[in-house]
């Protein structure tokens, strides 16, 4: 490994295959020593790095998971989707975490994983992932403290995320501002106040849209496009419920479901255009943490 720069791909492949088999015969202490020694070595064969990172013993796996430059985000996502919290917390300490990997950690992590990834300034999240992390922070003061103390996420983005939460989650976050342990209480309180004001404006805009669609002076598709663009899932539920004459909780459940049949049925009954429906389905998938699909797959 230390002289691997002079080895060809074939030699590295053979070594990796042999050493991966040898690793299975070593006790945990020796595997841990190897993991510590070679976690930062960029020439470690990928299959060897993966074998250590996927070790059943989380102490053995942790150095490789946290430091190895050989492990790609795709590999780490596959590990994070099936390994437990001790493996996940090691991944959450990596120097750089892409948004797709950050979202998986949010969706699968326990309180310690969520706090660790929230404190990691090198961790990125999609808007959907950040929304789910913020919702979790409403019940976890250390996560709220870490999240709202980050300087790399703009206040505007936090305000937008907070405005998208339901009232109950925002109320729980508001109560955290009274908790002595939340150092970022002032930032959180300011964001909550801004989010509450924005949410009230958005409610008024949505009520105006409902009135205009009902009067026939504005197309439903245009209103839906505007709300999808701003990621306003609650207002989409309110608008669709009013136009379809269905209970709003029913539409909210449809929009948060991992099954796309309900949304397709509602949109078809309201004669929503295909382009609008595809974008609405994309937002639903992103918010629910589902993998994106192409427009053709969505249509099928």
SSE pattern, N- to C-terminal:
HHHHHHHHHHHHHHHHHHH
Count all strands and give the number: 0
Specify the overall morphology.
Answer: elongated
Structural class: mainly alpha
Question: What is the typical, i.e. mean, pLDDT?
Answer: 83
Helix percent reads 55-70%
Number of helices: 19
Using the CA coordinates, give the radius of gyration: 24 Å
TL;DR of this structure?
With 300 residues, the chain is mostly helical. The protein has helices at 9-23, 28-38, 46-53, 58-67, 73-80, 85-92, 99-108, 111-119, 127-137, 141-148, 155-164, 167-176, 185-215, 220-229, 233-244, 248-256, 261-269, 274-287, 295-299. Helix 7 (99-108) runs parallel beside helix 9.
Give a written overview of the molecule.
The structure is a single chain. The chain is mainly alpha-helical. Helix content is about 70%, strand content about 0%. It is built from 19 helices and no strands. The chain has helices at about 10-25, 30-40, 45-55, 60-65, 75-80, 85-90, 100-110, 110-120, 125-135, 140-150, 155-165, 165-175, 185-215, 220-230, 235-245, 250-255, 260-270, 275-285, 295-300. The longest helix is centred in the middle third of the chain and has 31 residues, at about 185-215. The mean pLDDT is about 85.
Show the helix and strand layout.
Blueprint: H1 9-23, H2 28-38, H3 46-53, H4 58-67, H5 73-80, H6 85-92, H7 99-108, H8 111-119, H9 127-137, H10 141-148, H11 155-164, H12 167-176, H13 185-215, H14 220-229, H15 233-244, H16 248-256, H17 261-269, H18 274-287, H19 295-299
